[in-house]
Model the fold of this input.
Amino acid sequence: MSNEKKRHVIPGEVIVSGQYRAEQNTVLDGDKVLATVIGLSDVHDGSVRVIPLTGGYYPKDDDLVVGKIVSHSAMSWEVNINSCYAGMLPATDVFGRDFSSHSDDLSAKLSNGDLIVARIVNADKTRDPLLTISGRELGKIDSGELVEFSPSKVPRLIGKRGSMIQMIEGATGAQIIIGQNGMLVVSCDDPNGLLKAIKAIELVEEKAHVANLTDQVNEMLELKSE
Amino acid sequence: MGGRDTDIVLLDENGIRSDGRKVNETRKVSIKAGVLKNANGSAYIEFGENKILVGVYGPRDVHPKHMSDTDTGILRCRYHMSPFSVGERKNPAPSRREVEISKVIKEALEPALMLKQFPRTAVDVFMEILQADGGTRCAALTGASVALADAGIPMRDLVAGCAAGKAADAIILDVNNEEDQAGQADLPIGYMPNLEKITLLQLDGILTPDEYKQCIELGIDGCKQVYEIQKKALQEKYFTNGGTD
Done:
């Protein structure tokens, strides 16, 4: 089956008709595949999907997210993960299995307003998504600049096999933590590098639908470094 | 309704209506998507002399909590006319008519939305009529569907709204205020053009079966014209250079 060029689509628009699998953000109507969101259509090996250009973040299993602690109960923290569902971080994840709600104080480890990098363990939508911060590169974030980004444009910021983000990091010397939920943490020893990295991220946000975006960002980064 | 006697000539001998349109012509429609910064999705629509602002929030937490549904997301709509939207000041409290229109618009949008993907959440649609001139429910429905698409809520299709009706014994498209007041029938239609399905159908007045069929056909034709403008509004916001803001 042929691989069509990416097209701009709006909800209800017919992408292809015939024997295709309807994947992300598409719906089957007879033998027609319709888009359900505004975005770019992608037909590949008989499957059809739409890369969205708008919309919020919907938690998926194994997603890496950046979250902010909102509050805590006796057994868990509530984390804002920039979604319609609040993340749940159980106390046992931090204190271990011998956690006791009598002797351990949750606010001693993570207090309101703290930022964390977490992974989603379970997002079945029957209850709030479960988070974990035990793992490599997960846990509390001590320093950096929080940047809010459109969740639908995160794949664009990462680029093909991480090309876009590697380019930005390479040119500015900044370390960027990308949460799939659109929350980013940028840290850099050089303040100019930090500002430049944020500028580059803003450019990606603004021009996510443009085809040769990598070149444009590269151009901007080189211009600034002169 | 029922053909009240007025001085207005609804249809002259050349088949031209009181505002200069032909019988099968809609008013001028223009839509702009994404006009509000604080809402997740928004649209501003001018449908002839109607001016409507629509804001969409969600999916988000449901308050009050007892309204939430564990199987699906819920849709809540509020159609509201500003006190200055009509000639005489309108009391801003929701009237019986506004409550009804909110309900029918909600039911007209629901078939298009895929809320099963977001259980325990709500999508809120606020439609504010800034200026009214007949056919506000169709215009509000049209604008709401653009705002929902702008918010990125998954939809099977856009819903376009347009009314057909009967005035001076002729079947007309897109009934304006005078034709609504002095005409014989008004038939608002909500339509999903790609799925070819009707989601809103009301009738105020009397039509023969033949006239009814003609009205439906003409109304659907009007909806298709409106749909092209909805499509253009979304393409303008997301795909023209300069792009999303």
Notes: Helices of chain B lie at 96-109, 136-150, 177-182, 209-239. The CA atoms of residues 42 and 147 of chain B lie 4 Å apart. The mean pLDDT of chain B is 94.
